[in-house]
Design brief:
This is CCHC-type domain-containing protein. With about 270 residues, the chain is an alpha+beta fold. The chain contains 7 helices and 14 strands. Among the domains are: about 120 residues, Cathepsin D, subunit A, domain 1, CATH 2.40.70; about 35 residues, no CATH class.
Length: about 270
């Protein structure tokens, strides 16, 4: 009987020793089991919310498969991109055309021209439900093959990205799920987004010298600059005369011929 009691004491003592080495996965404190964690019971655990497999899990999985297979409007969670980028003009519901020689540089030193910047509306799959959302300040890069969602831009907004083996979650500042990405066979994280398309897009032009030159019937450049500087035109030009070229004016100059008017003189006899 004494041996049995001694064995129990030894086992309890060994458990206490082992417990010191344990770390609670909920609050990350030492010497505490997760089942005994007070923060877990109060719902104040400082960890990513656990995924639950409810009755909609199978439907959610099928939606994931269909979304990933939609390669034409696929969004890639990219660690190297510096800005949101898409290639299809019809994805924009508002767009400001670029008049500068803006380019983006890819990893292989290839430069692609940027045609504008605007806003895009999307639908994102959150817990099996499609929710509406918007992405602002998106660059229009026609030569891209995929749409890019940069991790750096997400981090600067105070949001966080949690990557697992097969998926990645994006949480906003309130720790609410903003979006989910699924890892593909090529080790890329594809966002569960659908882009809303617009057959017509509202395009706004900057106050470009060439645009105003054409709007005013190919007015002399010197006069246009004077209009801008004196305030006759409300907005100043975003382009200088340096490097200006108008194909229409050049065509008219090269194809203009001088046609002299013939003059014939003779004396007239005025009879009363």
């Amino acid at each position: 009987m004494k041996n049995t009691r001694n064995e129990k004491k030894f086992k309890n003592k060994s458990r206490e020793i082992d417990k010191v080495k344990i770390t609670c996965f909920s609050c990350r404190k030492k010497g505490l089991y997760a089942r005994d964690c007070p923060s877990k019971s109060r719902g104040k655990a400082n960890h990513v919310p656990e995924r639950t497999k409810g009755p909609n899990y199978s439907a959610f999985s099928s939606e994931i498969k269909r979304t990933v297979e939609r390669s034409e409007d696929q969004w890639i969670l990219d660690s190297g991109a510096s800005a949101h980028m898409i290639y299809n003009l019809n994805y924009f519901y508002s767009l400001s055309e670029s008049t500068e020689n803006e380019v983006i540089c890819l990893g292989n030193d290839i430069e692609l021209p940027v045609k504008g910047k605007g806003d895009v509306k999307i639908k994102k799959l959150i817990h099996g439900i499609w929710q509406e959302g918007e992405i602002h300040n998106v660059l229009h890069v026609p030569d891209l093959k995929k749409n890019l969602l940069p991790e750096g831009m997400i981090a600067t907004k105070g949001m966080k990205i949690v990557k697992m083996q097969d998926y990645a979650d994006i949480y906003n500042c309130e720790n609410e799920l903003f979006g989910t990405a699924v890892r593909s066979a090529s080790n890329l994280y594809n966002m569960l987004f659908r882009t809303v398309t617009y057959p017509e897009v509202n395009i706004s032009h900057k106050n470009n010298l060439k645009i105003w030159h054409e709007r005013t019937g190919h007015t002399n450049l010197k006069a246009l600059c004077e209009f801008s500087e004196t305030g006759i035109m409300k907005n100043r030009m975003s382009q200088t005369k340096k490097g200006f070229f108008c194909e229409g004016c050049q065509y008219m100059t090269n194809n203009t011929e001088f046609h002299p008017i013939p003059w014939n003189t003779k004396l007239l006899n005025l009879e009363n």
